[in-house]
């Protein structure tokens, strides 16, 4: 039994040492909800130069433990390096600011994305994907009525 405990302790220690200098990468997208429907549609545009941040808090005390900001590229995509495993924390990617003043209000329920940033979860990749987050356009596009008809279920199927 003592050998088994020692084996697991050595394995755990070697995993911790191996991952200490190996950052995690968080990737995601930021969009403008041009139809004001709460999800991505064919009319959705992706926002370059949108600001986001990763904020991590202690699971028990909810005190902030780590924060880092990022900016989206020309396709509305961001990649943020997190320097260490955050296994004891609860982490969210959060919208900060839209570059488009006509699409600057964060979409309720799509303004943050929870990410589990630890190697102690069976994942073999150092890349973590966050759900897309969005801002809501001040006015829907004229083409949105037609686009949203695609999502309606005919009465006979309800």
From TrEMBL:
Q: Which residues form the signal peptide?
A: 1-20
- Gene Ontology annotations for the cellular component aspect, listed alphabetically: extracellular space
Entries under InterPro entries matching the protein: Allergen_Ole_e_I_CS (IPR006040), Pollen_Ole_e1_allergen (IPR006041)
Taxonomically, the superkingdom here is Eukaryota
Keyword field: Disulfide bond, Signal
> Of which family is this protein a member?
Belongs to the Ole e I family.
**Protein name, per record:** Allergen BRSn20
Q: Which organism is it from?
A: Solanum commersonii (Commerson's wild potato)
